[in-house]
Amino acid sequence: MSQPLPNDYPALLADIKQRVRHAQTRAMLSVNAELIRLYWSVGRIIETSQQQEGYGTAVVPRLARDLCNELPEVKGFPNAISTGCWRFTVNTRV
Fold first, then answer.
1. How many C-beta atoms lie closer than 10 Å to residue 40's C-beta?
2. Among positive and negative, which fits the CA dihedral 29, 90, 48, 77?
3. CA-CA distance, 2 to 67, in Å (whole number)?
4. Which letter does DSSP use for residue 75 in this model?
5. By the 8 A CB rule, do 56 and 70 touch?
6. How far apart are CA 64 and CA 61, in angstroms?
7. In Å, how far are 21, 44, 45, 51, 52 from 33, measured between CA atoms?
8. Per-residue confidence in pLDDT tens, the chain, 94 aa
């Protein structure tokens, strides 16, 4: 036979649920901030390389394709490169 739940069980459940959701939100924000730093950094590398080496715009789609092949487990990042990581850098100079 199961024991009855304590009177404060709903509050305990609510507290734990709130803590889990709060931690999930903090984790998502951390990931998003790190991705922004990564995109900015990669964009800066591409922009600098284009300026110093005179790369044409064809290098960017090739780079995105090669990264897809080299890092198949990474989703979305090569698309970010081909759609404008480096533009993000140029437009958000610090």
1. 17
2. positive
3. 56
4. -
5. no
6. 5
7. 18, 17, 19, 27, 28
8. 688 999 999 999 999 999 999 999 999 999 989 988 888 888 888 888 888 887 777 777 888 888 888 888 877 766 666 666 656 655 665 5
Q: Give me the residue label for tokens 């609510």.
A: 14
pTM: 0.66
**Token pair listed for 22:** 């709060």
Are 78 and 67 in contact, with CB atoms under 8 Å apart? yes
CA-based diameter of the chain, in Å? 77
Look up residue 41 and give its two tokens: 């950094």
Structure tokens belonging to residue 30: 């951390």
